[in-house]
Amino acid sequence: CEDVLFEAEMQKIAKEMNYSETTFITSKENYDVRIFTPEVELPFAGHPTIGTALVIQQELIKRNIKMEHLYWRMEMWF
Questions:
Q1: Which residues form a coiled coil (predicted)?
Q2: Catalytic: 9?
Q3: pLDDT score, position 39
Q4: Which CATH architecture has domain 7-76?
């Protein structure tokens, strides 16, 4: 979260990774998440959201979290 990646850089990384979706945590305060396929950014995708939320909760903060996507916010408890 310390280093800023621009949209074009995130898209390039997602293309290089070549996974169906690649997530980027873009904000340390709200743990905002952006999701990219190798070709485009997605407004939402369930599996990468759940996976990213689990990593944030278990590895980074160890508490309930709020995440923001392009169009809405959500809270998750594990």
A1: none
A2: no
A3: 98
A4: Roll (3.10)
